[in-house]
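Input.
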Amino acid sequence: MLYAQRFTQFTREHADMLAALVCGLLLFLGWFALHLGALEIALLLLPAAYVIGGYESAREGLTTLFKQKELDVDLLMIVAAIGAASLGLWRREYHLIIDGAILILIFAISGALEGYAMQRTERSIRSLMSLTPDTARVLLQGREEEVSISQLKVGDEIVVKPGELIPTDGIIVSGYSTINQAAITGESLPVEKTVGAEVFAGTLNGYGALQIKVHKPAQSSLIVRVIRLVEQAKTQAPPSQEFIDRFEKGYAKVIVVSGILLATLPPFLWGWDWEITIYRALTFLVVASPCALMAAIMPTLLSGIANGARQGILFKNGAQLEKIGKVRAIAFDKTGTLTIGQVQVFQVITNSKYTQTDVLKAAASIESSSEHPIGKAIVEAATDLNWVGAVGVQAIPGQGIIGIVKEQQVIVGNATFLQQYVTNLPEELQQMAQCLEQEGKTVVWVAGEE
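Output.
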């Protein structure tokens, strides 16, 4: 039963590509049969390739014709393919039947690729939706009660414990913590949040417990709006596709009308033979089929949008993706975050009293018990060094961390925090720190108590 369900799901997900593969296989076997001179077998295999590969395009084309009273490129492609097959049978030039089948195969593969792109986009949307929990802890009369996100109302107060995802947008009314907003902003360095600060659904709470007041419906949260943008992006046609769609409607009509005129007027106007006239009209229909042009845009754009969403890059619509092709320069900040998605130690600067190794070992000893991304980056940078763990470690949120390493007190944090323990920071180091901060780097001070 399980295998039957998996097989059913597999065929449903890959139906278009399976049809294209079968069409291609029948086309190859038909060509091979012709090559061997087995005409009867070829004339059985090639029509089957036409039916299997062209069924979906024929259905869509006829639906558009009868329901919307419009001619589209799908129907034009079918007419061209049938025209090629008719020419092949009529003139006994059977390679033309192969040409028509190749035309159908191109459209079948294009449709399958577009379907895969749509599926990838939908999977990306589902992965975005998983960024928010399904339930939240609401404070009701002093007690915590777990409710569905959809039941949250503006004014409700919810509790978010350390390490949990924030379920909806709100304002902190109690508590202090660091929030990892990478899912929203792409910045891996957590942001310190306290009473009065706004937090967003899908972001990760750090070490502190928070009490948050819901200030907008869950359906209006920032992450939900992002998801809606991605959903709109997969359905909103970019300017190039809109142009192709407009072109297609007029082009199909012109080609069909021109084909009819070419098949009927020349015998009366110039005395052509009817056989030659119809042959040339069908040739015109085959040559005029714009299959490559029509199949070129949406599959590639949808694949780009889906791949971007998986990598955390969200395009508002296909038009924005197209505009990237015109970009000539991009300025990025924090290249370590950009390239590997986490903070890295860029440089260790010391005064004449200590070496870089001494400073890095002392900082790693203190930060080894910290969950802060900067602390983890320091420990990672000191992996190959022989450092010992610290004792009596105490973290001061938003400022730094302090502890004892080999019976000496070591302080790691910002300049203001260090000045509580160190009387004078070296002027030269302060100037260098200022220059580094202007470059967008985060400066961490390390000192031993004097």
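The CA atoms of residues 112 and 176 lie 51 Å apart.
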